[in-house]
């Protein structure tokens, strides 16, 4: 499979800014909400197993949480890729099945990238080992310092700006491992600065959506906690409701010294707050996943129809 050419920078920016429309994608939102909720539940179960000294169950539940988060995020990305391409979206079950069939490709791409970085670090370590020699060592070290700094810095930049954002969308779009690696190498060699700038814009957009979500959660949480006391007469510490809105539970509130009401209403506040917390982190996640799909389509030069 051949790799298409470049896209237009202005069109890429416009496509990236349109990624905020991902919050209106119902199936993707439900899939990511279920993914985060299930993964969080499994992590909580793993924590309980650790406290009960059931190490085996804790490991299994932790691995299950990672698997759910990985394949659920891939399924959500496939749904958003359909939206970014302007084509009819697949069903959630089809996206999950496709994620289970192709998720290993993303793992192989990431493994290949890690091996490449390990090779660079190995060469750097060999050069630094030579720098231990008494006569030529200082001269070798003087050359290895700038080379090592630039090489390691570029590796980190490529991982953060090229491999991380583009590997997933390439797999979601049906590319195999070899073609994906060729795409990543070509992008890192020819348009690294452009891609890094676009990823920075996407990061700022995601942070802005996260800040707006936090504002809604904080302002709404304070109002509801006040009304809960006035209207229902429930003696619920405001800190408990606010903690639930940020994903904390009874186990974490007690050691922190926060007031806890272990009543049905108190537990219900934590459960309801946890649901709001999952929604608040899902919205920035949707924007980011849709954004990397838009960035990928810009890289390969595709033109997306308006959605």
Describe this structure in words.
The chain has ten helices and no strands. Helix 2 runs antiparallel to helix 3.
Number of helices: 10
Q: What share of residues are in beta strands?
A: under 5%
The span between the termini is: 27 Å
Shape: globular
Largest pleated sheet: none
Which runs of at least 5 residues are low in confidence (pLDDT < 50)? 1-6, 254-258, 302-307
- Structure summary, number of beta strands: 0
Class from helix and strand fractions: mainly alpha
Helical amount among residues, as a percent range?
over 70%
Quaternary structure classification: single chain
Q: Write the H/E string, N to C.
A: HHHHHHHHHH
Overall radius of gyration: 24 Å
Mean pLDDT, as a whole number? 81
What is shown here, in short?
The protein is an all-alpha fold and 307 residues long.
Attribute tags:
single chain, 307 residues, mainly alpha, 10 helices, disordered C terminus
List the helices and strands and how they pair.
Blueprint: H1 9-17, H2 26-51, H3 55-85, H4 92-130, H5 137-172, H6 177-190, H7 192-232, H8 238-245, H9 250-253, H10 264-300
């Amino acid at each position: 499979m051949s790799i298409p050419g470049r896209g237009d920078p202005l069109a890429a920016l416009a496509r990236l800014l349109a990624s905020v429309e991902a919050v209106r994608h119902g199936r993707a939102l439900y899939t990511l909400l279920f993914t985060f909720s299930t993964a969080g539940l499994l992590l909580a179960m793993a924590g309980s197993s650790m406290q009960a000294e059931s190490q085996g169950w804790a490991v299994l539940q932790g691995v299950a949480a990672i698997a759910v988060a990985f394949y659920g995020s891939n399924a959500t990305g496939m749904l958003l890729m359909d939206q970014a391409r302007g084509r009819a979206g697949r069903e959630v079950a089809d996206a999950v099945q496709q994620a289970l069939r192709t998720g290993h490709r993303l793992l192989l791409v990431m493994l290949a990238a890690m091996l490449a970085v390990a090779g660079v670090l190995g060469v750097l370590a060999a050069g630094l080992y030579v720098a231990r020699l008494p006569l030529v060592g200082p001269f070798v070290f003087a050359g290895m310092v700038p080379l090592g700094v630039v090489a390691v810095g570029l590796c980190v930049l490529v991982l953060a700006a090229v491999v991380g954002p583009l590997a997933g969308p390439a797999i979601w779009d049906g590319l195999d491992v070899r073609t994906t690696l060729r795409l990543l190498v070509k992008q890192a060699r020819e348009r690294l600065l452009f891609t890094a700038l676009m990823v920075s814009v996407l990061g700022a957009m995601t942070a802005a959506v996260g800040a707006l979500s936090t504002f809604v959660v904080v302002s709404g949480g304070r109002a509801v906690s006040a009304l809960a006391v006035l209207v229902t007469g429930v003696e619920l510490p405001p800190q408990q409701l606010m903690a639930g809105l940020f994903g904390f539970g009874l186990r974490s509130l007690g050691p922190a010294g926060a007031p806890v009401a272990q009543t049905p209403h108190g537990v219900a506040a934590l459960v309801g707050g946890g649901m709001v917390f999952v929604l608040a982190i899902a919205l920035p996640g949707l924007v980011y996943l849709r954004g990397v799909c838009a960035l990928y389509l810009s890289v390969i030069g595709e033109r997306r129809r308006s959605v």
